[in-house]
Design a protein that fits this description.
The complex is a heterodimer. Chain A is α+β, with helices and mostly antiparallel strands. Chain A is 54% helix and 8% strand. Chain A is built from 9 helices and 4 strands, in the order βαβαββααααααα. In chain A, β3 and β4 form a beta hairpin. In chain A, α1 packs parallel to α3, α1 packs across α7 and α4 runs parallel beside α7. The longest helix of chain A is centred in the middle third of the chain and has 21 residues. Chain A starts with a strand and ends with a helix. In chain A, 41% of the residues are buried. Chain B is of the alpha+beta class. Helix content of chain B is 55%, strand content 7%. Chain B has 10 helices and 4 strands, in the order αβαβαββααααααα. In chain B, α2 links the parallel β1 and β2. The termini of chain B are far apart. At the A-B interface, α3 and α4 of A face α1, α4 and α5 of B.
Chain lengths: 211, 229
């Protein structure tokens, strides 16, 4: 049976995009989606905090009222039982879990060190420093995506649902920070052409930030 | 029937891995992520995983032989018997735990809560090391250490409150979350006894681990020894 419950999120949030895109990709219409007005600090209001004390999105509420957060947890919860997204071997599983760790410690820097400053804090010095920080990561993933179609190989995995919303937003920083990284750009074109829900997801993000 | 179907794939994976994990763990006794894995191996009496010390203070993780296996030159690193190599403590811990029914989440909600912790571990708890311990032990920068303590204070308060209501991080049962959390929080004692004094529930939790959970006492002692403390 498809997963049901309520997803709380926002179209501009990269971790929310990961989950929303997956739900569109797999054709899930049973998870209700509630918009959290982040700019209006809705995530700090008592009603939200009562469910999600860490005041973060994405957040998920199961049908019986069990509430939890973190994109990794929410994505894995809504994807459980999906044979396509289930690793086939212990090596595949190890590689996916390895990516989850790197996503938090490395890839999230695309947002924390660059996009956040570009869009929200407007601290340009910090953004400039952040671009230096993420350069080796972009080079690594660009090299990787020159050899394979997706982050972990020739098949789409949950890693792509996490990675793409972090990296694609860099196209809207300055005059497109991704221009030197042709393989990453080709990867994003592949997602746009071949992967259900991705084009709509990035369109929604652009609309949410006024692009 | 629905639950059985949903768990079929998980069960299938687990059944393939009922034997204790084998392979090679590369690590060092003071590294918090390495401690998580080493402690679990001791806890589960695993003697099948070979342990190799990587001289991280001497830069061995950047030597060609190591980088050939682990291009991101991190520890812990794990090499399966067929030579497949991967890193990241979360991935290694989950790999060596496969088939351990006592640490397997009992339902989707428990799994969600554990995965929620995994996310928070990386985004919040790892700051205990990256913002405080690194500044204190390696950079020897008192100002940055104090600044780091300010950063992590809300986390310590939050976990102190949680551990005042339950024995372990996610409830009354030991989980993988504890294997990740404890090596990050216990080392704050190295900054000074006053560091954890405001958090009596965390201190009691660490005492519980010391007296009740196999391998923990040795893990902390090993880290102290490795650093000459």
């Amino acid at each position: 049976m498809p997963v049901s419950g309520i997803l709380y999120g926002h179209a501009v949030s990269q971790p929310c995009r990961s989950v929303q895109w997956y739900l569109d990709y797999c054709g899930n219409t049973t998870v209700e989606r509630k918009l959290v007005d982040l700019r209006g600090k809705e995530q700090m209001k008592p009603e939200f905090l009562a469910k999600f004390p860490n005041h973060q999105v994405p957040a998920f509420e199961t049908e019986d009222g069990f509430c939890f957060g973190e994109s990794l947890a929410v994505l894995k919860y809504v994807a459980r039982g999906d044979p396509e997204m289930t690793p086939k071997t212990i090596q595949d599983e190890a590689r996916l879990d390895e990516y989850f760790g790197r996503h938090y410690s490395q890839v999230r820097k695309f947002t924390r060190e660059v996009f956040y400053h570009h869009l929200v804090s407007k601290e340009m010095d910090k953004k400039t420093e952040g671009l230096v920080v993420i350069k080796p990561l972009l080079e690594t993933y660009d090299a990787l995506l020159g050899k394979q179609d997706y982050v972990l190989g020739s098949s789409l995995t949950l890693a792509d649902f996490l990675f793409a919303p972090e990296v694609d937003q860099l196209q809207f920083v300055d005059d497109n920070v991704l221009l030197p990284y042709k393989n990453i750009l080709s990867y994003l074109e592949r997602l746009t052409t071949n992967i259900k829900g991705y084009k709509e997801d990035i369109s929604a993000m652009k609309a949410a930030i006024g692009l | 029937l629905k639950l059985q179907f949903l768990y079929f794939i998980g069960e299938h994976h687990t059944k393939l891995n009922k034997m204790p994990a084998t392979g090679i763990l590369y690590g060092h006794a003071f590294s918090q992520p390495c401690r998580s894995v080493q402690w679990y191996l001791d806890y589960s009496d695993n003697t099948a995983v070979e342990r190799k010390v990587v001289d991280v203070l001497g830069g061995e993780q950047k030597a060609a032989e190591y980088v050939a296996k682990f291009p991101q030159h991190q520890v812990p690193g794990f090499e399966m018997e067929d030579g497949f190599c991967f890193a990241e403590s979360l991935a290694i811990l989950k790999h060596v735990v496969q088939g351990d029914e006592t640490l397997k989440p009992g339902c989707p909600k428990e799994e969600a809560r554990l995965n929620e912790y995994f996310g928070r571990h990386y985004s919040q708890v790892r700051k205990f090391s990256t913002e405080v311990i690194f500044a204190h032990l390696f950079a020897k920068d008192a100002e940055k250490t104090q600044a780091g303590l300010v950063v992590i204070k809300p986390q310590l308060e939050s976990y102190n409150e949680t551990l005042g209501k339950q024995n372990y991080l996610l409830g009354d049962k030991l989980t993988l979350a504890d294997f990740l959390f404890a090596p990050e929080v216990d080392q704050l004692a190295w900054v000074g006894p006053e560091t954890l004094a405001p958090y009596p529930n965390i201190l009691k939790y660490l005492e519980r681990l010391t007296s009740d959970v196999k391998g923990y006492k040795e893990s902390f002692a090993g880290a102290n020894t490795a650093l000459g403390l």
